[in-house]
Amino acid sequence: LEVWVFVSCSCRSRVGAQEVLWDMSIQPASLVERIQAIAQNVSNMASRVEQILQNSIVQEGSSSQCEVPRDPRYPECPGKVDWMRARWTSDPCYAFYGVDGSDCSFLIYLSEVEWFCPPLAWRNHSSLPTQFTQQQTKAPRRQAAFRTDLSVLLDQVGTGQESLSFMKRRIRRLAQQWATAANHLDAKLEQRWRDQKKILVHVGFLTEESGDVFSPKVLKGGPLGEMVQWADILTSLHVLGHNLKISMSLKDLQGFLGVPPGRGSCPLTGPLPFDLIYTDYHGLQQMKQHMGLSLKKHKCHIRVIDTFGTEPAYNHEEYATLHGYRTNWGYWNLDSRQYMTMFPHTPDNSFMGFVSEELNDTEKRSIQQNKVNNMAVVYGKEPSMWKGKEGFLQILHRYMEVHGTVYYETQRPPEVPAFVKNHGLLPQHELQQLLRKAKLFIGFGFPYEGPAPLEAIANGCIFLQPKFNPPHSSLNHEFFRGKPTSRQVSAQHPYAEQYIGKPHVITVDFNNTEEFEAAIREIMSAKVEPYLPYEYTCEGMLERVHAYIQNQTCSAPNEAHPGVGKQLGPMFVPLSNSTALGWSPNVPPPAAWPPLRALRLLVSQEGQSCVEACQRAGLVCERAHFHYINSKEALHALEVQCEVVDSEMNHILPAFSVMRRECGLQREALLFSCAGHSPKYRRLCPCRDFRQGQVALCRDCL
Ligand SMILES: *[C@@H]1O[C@H](CO)[C@@H](O)[C@H](O)[C@H]1NC(C)=O
Ligand SMILES: *[C@@H]1O[C@H](CO)[C@@H](O)[C@H](O)[C@H]1NC(C)=O
Ligand SMILES: *[C@@H]1O[C@H](CO)[C@@H](O)[C@H](O)[C@H]1NC(C)=O
Ligand SMILES: *[C@@H]1O[C@H](CO)[C@@H](O)[C@H](O)[C@H]1NC(C)=O
Ligand SMILES: *[C@@H]1O[C@H](CO)[C@@H](O)[C@H](O)[C@H]1NC(C)=O
């Protein structure tokens, strides 16, 4: 019908042209102009008609081409088309990709931009831009070169918020140390080829959209651990020579990723322009809101900086929901090694860490000479951390001069007793001077697992901290509640206790007054050297991050046919054809990293986790190796007699019950867990060796 209207309209125009001729004879002056104008109108209209005719022919002719296909390989297609019919206007991004309300446009979109429907045979696929064909042309490999000049990085960090100034001050202060470390590592790696990666760092918690609650507290004793760590991550990536983009706002994130205009329901406009994206839980949430399906597709490239760690049981959405592990933060279905922690407390995750300031030998000697044996500094910049600690402080004061660095505005905070010499919040170099003189750095239980004790120990202090009995965890302590881990925190700073220990660290029950006093006396007479574990030096961090970037791989998902292959990474080889998470089955095992020669198969006691079992043997649980021990052969090798070999989804598997003569293998690779334990089961544990001072890396890992 439309066509006829326009055709007749076109005829009328021709009539109009005749009228012009008639008109012409009367008013010859405007003749030329009018002819031109009318001719223009006529020709415009003709071409519009032609266009409309053509479109309608395409639609008529292809109405069968745009029938919703019933293809068992694309079961979601009809449902998605229905959804599009009802909701395609809900986000302008659909129109951006050419959706106009017609079924053809839905099918084109759902097959070429998303991947729920089969490709349409009549579309010219060779003419489609790359985001539609999903083919990523491999850029040529480039070699990364160490950088010792940090000025470009400092410019990239930008200005504005107080947190950025804090990070920049830190980067500048440690610049020399980073440069020296870069030269050492460069020499150590002996010209080895290192791929230069394109890396995006999106610091979610500093974005305005997530509230940037930190900036206002930087100058008031607020927690700085996260900012310390981000500053060091940025510096490591820069120094290692990677191609770095930094985003601290939603707008930057959208721009860097190529988010189409709209509300974020659609995939990105092109292939992911990064090899790796470092972010945090806030940033992950933002990426989920703005990347549509692309987040799932590019999941492999993401690394989540996660201070306290995420255990596999909490990370697997379906499992967490069914078994009571659901929290505000978990259930992202990542490989748990994609979570990177502040301390090496959760071997299911990767240990990212941070660095502490290093001293040269001259400085170390001068510290030894200037120590004041009866000087103690209390760990805790906020008055609330001192609340209820008068008893301990009184005892301490009987032996030592007590110093504090508690933030205050005008007067002494009431929580800080009068005998305490409070310096107020100190700038970094003054705090360091104080620590260099002090003999004791004492924690009263909070904050947990921060950077300050390492700094104190590096400046020759002894760190005295409370043992927690029972341990604190998400089950019994408000602070950990809702965190995706059930890790038992046995002291204020478990790393200090386990990895450093005496004489630098003393962990006692503070409620046992005798023990507490004995510890203080011991400290006053002890002589200790400044100490910093290698993994917290710049070189140690560079070495670790280098190894992760070069060898902790995860191949891109099957980008050519994402509808069929969906997601996949050899790093995350699944064992079943469970498609719940979109990982593809039946993939040949990848070249292992850490190398398999580091693997030691152990069996835990009943009730013991693999974290503990490996630790008892002087080893560390290696989650990457579960894949290789999840087999009947492993059970045979251990001479386990079992009646049933079953494959289930349970985070304690592979495991067996001696009493029940029952064995179980793991069906879901995402649930391999060093942390899991059960009173009835003995677990098969993949343990490995580690480098002295660098627990993240096995001896042959570099
Ligand atoms: C040409 O078309 C425009 C509107 O499309 C109209 O305003 C104008 O009067 C037309 N010119 C002539 C000469 O018919
Ligand atoms: C498909 O598109 C390409 C690139 O635009 C063009 O060269 C080719 O001729 C087209 N093929 C068909 C069959 O239209
Ligand atoms: C040690 O560090 C201090 C101050 O940071 C510096 O003045 C001194 O030259 C350094 N000494 C050596 C031997 O590098
Ligand atoms: C000391 O005991 C009290 C109450 O018995 C308890 O609340 C507190 O956590 C204990 N402190 C330490 C450091 O163990
Ligand atoms: C790390 O990966 C590189 C290639 O990127 C390879 O040459 C090297 O052997 C790997 N190292 C280990 C220990 O697997």
Automatic annotation (TrEMBL):
UniProt key word Transit peptide: no
Pfam families found in the cross-reference section: Glyco_transf_18
Chain segments annotated as transmembrane: none
Membrane topology category: Single-pass type II membrane protein
BP GO terms, sorted: protein N-linked glycosylation
Keyword DNA-binding found: no
Glycosyltransferase family 18 catalytic domain span: 93-687
Family named by the database record: Belongs to the glycosyltransferase 18 family.
Identification of the protein by name: alpha-1,6-mannosyl-glycoprotein 6-beta-N-acetylglucosaminyltransferase
